[in-house]
Amino acid sequence: MKNLNLLSILLFASIAFVSCDNSANENQFTLLSSNDTGVDFINQLYEDNEINYFTYPYIYMGGGVSVGDINNDDLDDIFFTGNMTKNRLYLNKGNLKFEDITDSSGSGGDDRWYTGSTMIDINNDGLLDIYVSVAGLDGIKNNELYINNGDNTFTESAKDYGIDDIGNSVQATFFDYDKDGDLDLYVANYPITPFDAPRSYYFYKMQNTDDYETDNLYRNDGSSFTRVTEEAGLRTYGLTLSATIGDLNNDSYPDIYISNDFSSPDFMYMNNGDGTFSESVKETTNQTSFYGMGVDIADFNNDSYLDYIQVDMDAKDNRRSKANMASMNPDLFWSTVNYGFHYQYMHNTLQLNRRIEGDKPFFSNISRLSGISSTDWSWGPLLADLDNDGWKDLFISNGIRREINHRDFFNEIKLRPMSNDSLLYYTEQMPSEAIANFTFKNNTDLTFTDVSESWGLDQKNFSNGATYADLDNDGDLELIVNNVDQEAQIYRNNSKNNFIKVKLKGSDQNPIGIDSRVFVKTSDNNQMQELTLSRGFQSSVSTYLNFGVGNEEIIESVKVLWPDGKTEELNNVEANTTIEFDIKNSMIEALDDEKLNLYFENEEIVNHKHKENIYDDYAKEVLLPHENSKLGPGIATGDINGDGLEDFVIGGAKDQSTAFYFQNSNGSFSQRSFYFSSSHSKYEDMDMILNDFDSDGDLDLYIVSGGNEFEPNSPILKDRIYVNDGKGYFSYSENSIPNNYSSGMRVSSEDFDKDGDLDLFVGGRVVPGSYPLPADSFLLVNQSDKDEIKFVNADYSDFPFRDIGLVTSSVWVDYNNDGWKDLIVVGEWTPVKFFKNQDGKFSEDKSMIDEDSTRGWWYDVIAEDFDNDGDMDLVVGNLGNNYKYQATEDETFDIFYNDFDKNNSGDIVLSYYNDGEQFPLRGRQCSSDQIPAIKTKFQDYDAFSIATLEDVYGDTDLDNSLHYFTKTFSSIYLENTGNSFEMNKLPVLSQLSAINKILKKDIDKDGYVDIIVSGNMFNSEVETPRNDGSVGVFLKFEPETGFQAIPTKESGLFLNGDIKDMEFINLKNNDYIISAKNNDLIEFTRIK
Question: Please, are residues 652 and 640 in contact by the beta-carbon 8 Å criterion?
Answer without folding.
Answer: no
